[in-house]
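Hey,

The postdoc asked me to send both predictions to you directly instead of through the lab channel. I've kept everything plain text so nothing gets mangled by the mail client. Protein one:
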Amino acid sequence: MKFLKIIGLLYFLIPAMVNGQNTFNHQLDLGLQFTVFTKVHATDSCYYTIGVIIDSMPGNKIGSLFTKFDLEGNILFSKKLVSSDISYSPWFCNLLPLDDGNMVDVVTSTDSVARVRVMRCDIKFQWMATSYCFEKISSLSYG
């Protein structure tokens, strides 16, 4: 009887596990040594991703990578937010869509002082506005 319960359970679980979402796996050469996508925002027609990029050469800073994929996983466009003077890193990896079709992202920028920036961009990641939330994060106490 126990065997029949297990068979019955598998009969209902296996189709649910097999019928999953469409996935893709592509190796991308983005010109940097280390890239990690940390957030995916899916729409009906595409995927928007945020990632962290790091070059392994000494003196290079951390940057952010913003990419748009079609539903098959092909890159439609990508944009890097990098600087030789400032490190940019997504904070909490949020990419929030707005009602007007634009998006907002929160990044930390570090030169001699760490700051949190709220950055507004259009769907092609053209930066429209930047505002600082906090300055001197390194002086905050985490207790």
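Protein two:
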Amino acid sequence: MGSNTVPYILAGAQGLPPLPPATLDPLLDAAARCFARFGIDHTSVPDVARELRVNRATVYRLGGNIEQLKRLLVTREGYRMMAELATRVDAPLGPEQLVETMTWAITHIREHPVVARILAGDANSVPHELFWDVDERIPQIASLVLPLIDSAISGGHLARRDPRVVAEWVIRISASLIAVQPEVGTEQFLAEILIPALTPARSRKRE
């Protein structure tokens, strides 16, 4: 399942920061454990060094400071999520499948230990920790899903709308639902608006 989605995922990934080498996985895993335990803003390079059982000079040499470690971790987790999406999503993408995919992605991100730690912390710190560099990252992440959405619209599987607007809307609403869950379930919340808005006119007529 999902093998026909891979070309779209790869097309969207162009221009992203490169995947950190696997040799950095132990360092990034240690950083993730510290972020989940202490919170990103309260984690220091010495914390990561102790977790990895190395000296802090090694952490600086391999991954840099906390800000750089955070960026490397986000990049790695983003690539891992893309790989998972490629196995879950079949092109072409219809409205129902888009809702299912968004629901999975939102839930998956909320359950990540680092994100869960952020959401469980001080409400005033959530926007700062969760949405850092948001102006840069939303267009970047939207570009990942744009080829898949553009193909679905061109093929008549989604309603004819501006694919760039749809891609950005998908990312913006997903980000808001990661931060604050709706009273109804995430899937129901998305389906209520998305399915009518993105169902092609001919499909609505058949109903």
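Summary for protein two, as requested: The chain has one domain: 3-14+74-206.

Thanks,
C.
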